[in-house]
Amino acid sequence: MFFAADGKVEVTKEGMKLCTMGPGKVFGELAILYNCTRTATVRTLVHVKLWAIDRQCFQTIMMRTGLIKHSEYMDFLKSVPTFQGLSEETLSKLADVMEETHYDDGEYIIRQGARGDTFFIISKGKVNVTQEDSVNQDNIHLRELGRGDWFGEQALQGEDLRTANVIAAEPVTCLVIDRDSFKHLIGGLDDVSNKVYEDAEAKAKYEAENAFFSSLKLNDFNIIDTLGVGGFGRVELVQLKNEESKTFAMKILKKRHIVDTRQQEHIRAEKHIMTEAHSDFIVRSEPSESLCFM
Ligand code: 6J7
C-alpha cells in the first residue's frame, strides 16, 4: 500500500482515466484488504515520492489498531450503566460490530419520520433531542444527551420510523449498532426495551398546545352552530378563522351568573378534571386573557 508524499499519480482502469492524486493520498489498499489482484493501474505523472507498506506490515498494523479499538470500546461499554449487566462475551461481540461515526455541530444524526435501522451510543460530545409538534409543526426541545447516553431504540422496536430528531450540539462521535446486532445483543435489556418517554412527549405536546391556544382571541373563531344549551351557558361549535379545518366545542359561561350562584369552585373543579383527563379531545392549555374574560 502506498502513501503519496510528493508529486502526482494518475489512476486508470481498462484504459479509462479514473482520477489523479497528489500528496497525502493513499492507494493500493484494496488488494491487501480483499486479498485480490490490483483493481486499477497507478502511473506517475511527474517525479513522485511515496511511502510504501508491505502486506504483512499493513495487516499487523490493522490488527493492532483493531485490537486497541476493541479494548477501548469494551472499557467504554463497561462504563455505561445500561450495559453493565451484559456478559464479557456479549460486550465483546458488541465491540466487534460497532461502527464509529462522526457528526459536525448542528448535523442531524436522526430525523423524525425517517426509517431507522441503527442504534447509537454517544462516546463523545452532546446532542439535542427535539420533536415536531403535531399542532403547529414547531420543534420542541425534549432533552440533551451526552457521553454514555444512547438513543434510536424506538424505531428498532415498533414501527421502523424515527420518533424524534437527534441533532449534534457540538462535534459528536457515536458508536453505531445495526438492527440485527441490536436485536440479538441489546434489545432484550430492561432499560432499553422498557424505555418510556411519555412524560417528556406529553409535556412537549402540552407546551406546544399552550403556546398555540394562549395566543388565540375570541375574535379568532367563527361560531358555526350551537351544540347545546345548559343551566349555566351554552356550547358552540366554533372554527378557527384562519384554519377552518380546526373546529372545537367551546363552552361559554356568563361570569356574572357563576358568581351570583356561587359556582366558582365547581367551575374550577370541572376545568381541573378536564385537564387531568389527558384526552386528545380536550384542550388542556390555559386560555388567553381575552377568552377567559369573555
Ligand atoms: Br433520548 C429521547 N427522548 C425522547 C423522547 O422524549 N421521545 C421520543 N419519542 N424519543 C426520544 N428519544 C430518542 C429515542 O431513542 O430519540 C430517538 C429518535 O429515534 C428515539 O428513538 P427513535 O425513534 O428510533
From TrEMBL:
<keyword id="KW-0418">Kinase</keyword>
<feature type="domain" description="Protein kinase">
    <location>
        <begin position="221"/>
        <end position="294"/>
    </location>
</feature>
<keyword id="KW-0723">Serine/threonine-protein kinase</keyword>
<feature type="domain" description="Cyclic nucleotide-binding">
    <location>
        <begin position="82"/>
        <end position="203"/>
    </location>
</feature>
<keyword id="KW-0808">Transferase</keyword>
<dbReference type="InterPro" id="IPR017441">
    <property type="entry name" value="Protein_kinase_ATP_BS"/>
</dbReference>
<dbReference type="InterPro" id="IPR014710">
    <property type="entry name" value="RmlC-like_jellyroll"/>
</dbReference>
<protein>
    <submittedName>
        <fullName>cGMP-dependent protein kinase 1</fullName>
    </submittedName>
</protein>
<dbReference type="Pfam" id="PF00027">
    <property type="entry name" value="cNMP_binding"/>
</dbReference>
<dbReference type="GO" id="GO:0016301">
    <property type="term" value="F:kinase activity"/>
</dbReference>
<dbReference type="InterPro" id="IPR018488">
    <property type="entry name" value="cNMP-bd_CS"/>
</dbReference>
<feature type="binding site">
    <location>
        <position position="251"/>
    </location>
    <ligand>
        <name>ATP</name>
    </ligand>
</feature>
<feature type="domain" description="Cyclic nucleotide-binding">
    <location>
        <begin position="1"/>
        <end position="79"/>
    </location>
</feature>
<dbReference type="InterPro" id="IPR011009">
    <property type="entry name" value="Kinase-like_dom_sf"/>
</dbReference>
<dbReference type="InterPro" id="IPR000719">
    <property type="entry name" value="Prot_kinase_dom"/>
</dbReference>
<keyword id="KW-0067">ATP-binding</keyword>
<dbReference type="InterPro" id="IPR002374">
    <property type="entry name" value="cGMP_dep_kinase"/>
</dbReference>
<keyword id="KW-0547">Nucleotide-binding</keyword>
<dbReference type="InterPro" id="IPR000595">
    <property type="entry name" value="cNMP-bd_dom"/>
</dbReference>
<dbReference type="InterPro" id="IPR018490">
    <property type="entry name" value="cNMP-bd_dom_sf"/>
</dbReference>
